[in-house]
Amino acid sequence: KPLLRRRLAQKCCSLSALRAWLPFLSWLPSYNLRWLQMDLLAGLTVGLTTVPQALAYAEVAGLPVQYGLYSAFMGGFFYTLLGTSKDVTLGPTAIMSLLCFSVVGGQPHRAVLLSLLCGLIQAGMALLRLGFLVDFISFPVIKGFTCAAAITIGFGQVKNILGLQGIPQQFFLEVYYTFYRISEARIGDVVLGLLCLSLLVMLMLMKKKLVSYDGSTSETNSRNSTLAGKLVWIVATMRNALVVVAASCIAFSWDAYGHNVFTITGEISQGLPPFRPPPTSDITANGTIVPFWEVVEGFGGGLAVIPFMGLLESIAIAKAFASQNDYRIDANQELLAIGVTNIMGSFVSAYPVTGSFGRTAVNSQTGVCTPAGGIITSMIVLLSLAFLMPAFYYIPKASLAAVVICAVAPMVDYPIVAKMWRIRKLDLLPFVVTFLMSFWKVQYGILGGVAVSAVLLLYNMARPQIKVTDHGALVMDLNSGLSFPAMEYASHIIHTQALQANPPRSMVLDCHHISIIDYTVISELRDLLRQFELRGVRLVFCSLQPSVLKVLLAADLQGFKYADSVEAALHMVSGNWLDD
């Protein structure tokens, strides 16, 4: 019997571990017809949103538009197997597209290799359980980056609204030459672009303000109103696809009559991408072969920034919707899902992807029940690649630009500045540094913001809050704990207020906030105890946590005295309590 119980326990542990690595095993046995219906509806809705967005985001990445679709289908399959959120959809996003462009400059082969390397880094981090590293990217840095990215991406599409060609990609030059050459704008692109923007904004506002009329007096009227509301909601949700299709029909009609008034997407590689290993080298325009290590060296800091931002964006989205829909996610498993998706995506010419907030919101609102909805979305993208690529020839670039602008506009969260000013003004420093540096180079903005946040964090560690009160003897309360960077500061205060006083004064250290202590602190405390003894006064510790007391006793500090409370320690330094 003990052997049988042991074997059953081992089997349960192995099954639990397998479910942890393959989360679909947790929900697949319970899958039913209702879940299938809801996943089909959500997958179809998200698919019709994904196709036009993928085409538009490829433009942001500086790649041929088919690369957006190449990057949009692998996530649905692998996230279904490895993801822990029922709502998240992986694919091209505005921010990842901008980061990709800033690193590879619109070179397809390098973008595909970047996807492989990012995936390997992310998968490696997942296996080593390093998902906690994203906690070191503070909220002001994220907000500063997303606001700057939204402005950079949005303004980068203005040239397509105006039908301008040959505009530099660097942000400040782009702004200058867009206004300098505004007189060259094509009327057809401007009119169509503004019309698409107006329709998208109108449909987006309709979706936000949509209300159900459950309070109607007639049951029939209530049913009809609800049906009409659902119809409007579906139309508003699929607004990107509808606007792009309508704009393509207009462009095709004008082209059929020989009027070339719109800048269209043009020739696109047709069919599914070949499944092949990603390139490990590159070839320049003059035929020179660039070896693997030179390509990687050219990626620079982007090779660190992109995996982190992909992880950060996806996990933030997953946590938000997990909280909203009452379930939990595994951050390291999410990281593994993103990493495997990017690795396998590189075999079908994809560039780096992550979770999309907009498409995840659509997925959740449509009532998706499991990650299997992503399979339907991926099938829609594959069908588009297989059969609709010739039709994409007539998609006006102005309509894709309108889709991108409407997608990134909500990312400009200007009220956050006032909130940070009210709560903690110092948080504006990493926000402003990240925001401004991102216009110079995106990855530098993130790195600069993280560096400023790290300096502020280290400063708070090195200068903890210390409160000194006088109760006959001085009582020092270390409100923020004590670590080796803070020890010199604490020692300075002790010397100034106790040892250098005339006459020297005894002191009680209230240590109830201290949970860990290191060798540097022990060394400094040994010296302080000696200094107090030389001056004929006492340094007494109180409210020590058991783990800290154990370390201090093991250090065998000469003259070390401690008490259970501040009152007992004050009694001790007054000389009325026998030494322990």
UniProtKB/TrEMBL annotation:
Q: Which GO terms describe its molecular function?
A: antiporter activity; monoatomic anion transmembrane transporter activity
Q: Which residues cross the membrane?
A: 65-82, 112-132, 187-206, 227-254, 299-322, 334-353, 373-393, 400-418, 438-459
Which UniProt keywords are listed? Anion exchange, Cell membrane, Ion transport, Lysosome, Membrane, Transmembrane, Transmembrane helix, Transport
Q: Which residues form the STAS domain?
A: 472-557
Q: Which Pfam families match?
A: STAS, Sulfate_transp
What domain of life is recorded for the organism? Eukaryota
Example GO biological process? inorganic ion transmembrane transport
Q: Which reaction does it catalyse?
A: sulfate(in) + H(+)(in) = sulfate(out) + H(+)(out); oxalate(in) + chloride(out) = oxalate(out) + chloride(in); hydrogencarbonate(in) + chloride(out) = hydrogencarbonate(out) + chloride(in)
| Keyword Acetylation among UniProt keywords | no
Spell out the InterPro entries in the cross-references.
SLC26A/SulP_dom, SLC26A/SulP_fam, STAS_dom, STAS_dom_sf
Q: Does the keyword Iron apply?
A: no
Q: Where in the cell is it found?
A: Apical cell membrane; Basolateral cell membrane; Lysosome membrane
- What is the topology of this protein in the membrane according to its UniProt annotation? Multi-pass membrane protein
> Can you list the GO cellular component terms from the UniProt entry?
apical plasma membrane; basolateral plasma membrane; lysosomal membrane
Family from the record: Belongs to the SLC26A/SulP transporter (TC 2.A.53) family.
Any idea what job this protein has? Answer: Sodium-independent anion exchanger mediating bicarbonate, chloride, sulfate and oxalate transport. Exhibits sodium-independent sulfate anion transporter activity that may cooperate with SLC26A2 to mediate DIDS-sensitive sulfate uptake into high endothelial venules endothelial cells (HEVEC). In the kidney, mediates chloride-bicarbonate exchange, facilitating V-ATPase-mediated acid secretion. May function as a chloride channel, playing an important role in moderating chloride homeostasis and neuronal activity in the cerebellum.
PANTHER family per the UniProt record, alphabetical: SULFATE TRANSPORTER
Name it. Answer: Sodium-independent sulfate anion transporter
Q: What is the lineage of its organism?
A: Eukaryota, Metazoa, Chordata, Craniata, Vertebrata
